């Protein structure tokens, strides 16, 4: 934990501490739609968000009506369509070393980019962005400066709030028009009954008669577009929930009835733009809105958790597609099937929690790029790499700590890697046996112990108690 430095005036001893805090605040997802990893040589990088296959989902942010508009780079004339925002983000990282945090929380991305394009022509980027230097203690030719633009900067936070406020005003105005509209006319997609008047009549009918609820009418905006999108799915013989396609409508309806799939898919974020809550509280999903709007739920003041059941999150093996529900099982599998003993490595190398995180992310990345971490031999497929490592005995041949104990490996290689959440501190740490590590500790100001003792709240309470007795 020594190869990163900040060059924007911050005190060096706070660098790692600030980095850790920032990682947790952003949920280890600092780069949002980009997962960026920088190797020592600067040759390999992962620019796409990686997910394990069983949890892939379409990650679509709040869409506007003109997704086809072009967005300009803040530094050059490069243009990219708003619907392909990742293309522009990759360009910013590769060509200009700029990372924009929390992209999904920017209400109007084109206007946000235009604002900063103007500001960067007026002042240098270092006046606004934190500068992170990779491999700070290595050779100068291997060092790179990356710029982070986020709402920690007051000007950026104000801009985001203003854009959000303007978008909210537009959405609320549209919603009010729909709520007051009495000229609504539409046919139910399930029974072909015609409805006229207010949109709530149709929405309540579908919820009551067909057990298909998309939430309270007052929480919906762009209702006509929403219903059009749902009808297109039915016309394409596609189930709302599992989104499988069937050969005819009769089979589809039987499937939705038997499987209780008369609800929309929680992983399809195309629906986000139709719920007002997504403009009020960015990051809150429409599925949470549906649960809040469920009028059948009764308030329970007893807080009875006896029937609560946790949904196990499956951890994926480092070397194959095997999944297990807990750390013990996945470690046993890796040891028996691949001769990889994570517990042994943790003990022998005295790995702290964050070092385990970085080691797992390092191994994930090397295997994703079809490279043996033991000898750096590159092959065609991941399966060939694993076979090579088994035959050559490289599975437990971890390289020097300087290769993988790098800041870039704080970021997960796979953004849904449940194995990271199952890691734990070593036994010596949990028992408090080894606290003499080089991890910096920032105590409170205890320069005047006498004053603290005299002003102690506990001391005052004891005096009051003594006087009262």
UniProtKB/TrEMBL annotation:
Entries under PANTHER family matching the protein: ZINC FINGER PROTEIN 277
Ranges of residues in domain C2H2-type: 237-266
Protein's recorded name: C2H2-type domain-containing protein
Pfam families in alphabetical order: zf-C2H2_2
UniProt entry keywords in alphabetical sequence: Membrane, Metal-binding, Transmembrane, Transmembrane helix, Zinc, Zinc-finger
Family designation: Belongs to the ZNF277 family.
Spans through the membrane: 14-40
Record organism: Pygocentrus nattereri
Domain of life where this protein originates: Eukaryota
Molecular function per GO: zinc ion binding
SUPFAM superfamilies assigned to the protein according to its UniProt record, in alphabetical order: beta-beta-alpha zinc fingers
Recorded name of the encoding gene: ZNF277
